Amino acid sequence: MKTVARVLGLCSLVVSFAVQAADTMPDVLVRATVDEVLSVIKQNKDKRTLHDLAEKKVLPHFDFQTMTRLAVGKSWREANPDQQKKLENAFRGLLVNTYTTALSQNAANDAAVEVKPVQVKPDRNDVTVKTVARQPGRQPVAIDYRMTRTSSGWKVYDVIVENLSLVTNYRGSFAAEISRSGIDGLIRTIEAKNQKLAEG
Prior knowledge:
Elements: H1 2-11, H2 26-43, H3 47-58, H4 64-72, H5 81-106, E1 112-115, E2 126-134, E3 141-150, E4 153-161, E5 164-165, H6 166-199
């Protein structure tokens, strides 16, 4: 269920926020997309279609640079600009490939996501939008989006499923790989995994 929940967590935002005003409340942005996204899932679970949809619609609304920096941890400062860009692109691809694959295989047609209201003070630039993913016959799963206010609207920089941070989850494995083979080794490892997921 947690795999499916992470899928819903990422893909609940697949429908573009571009039509929404940049100052729209983050929970409103999430809530407005959930029904549409679940409708897409019910109609088409083709992996290629879901991958293309995520590439075109979800990525502009995630802050992948911040996500990658947090996932890589202290080693981010040791990477040169070229390595940082390669890491960001590889991590971006890893998330999309992982979750579109899982979505095509596991998401149920009767899944639903409840988005809880959130209050955002004008001087706050960081907020957590809490949601709950439900599928009949399974325990509800809490999914939180950590979002930051940018000049182009609110962007997601972490997804937390049942108190487990996506960024923190990757940080441990990334640190181990960097310890074994350095920044370039981590890049190669992620790119190889992306290749495998794409072929699968």
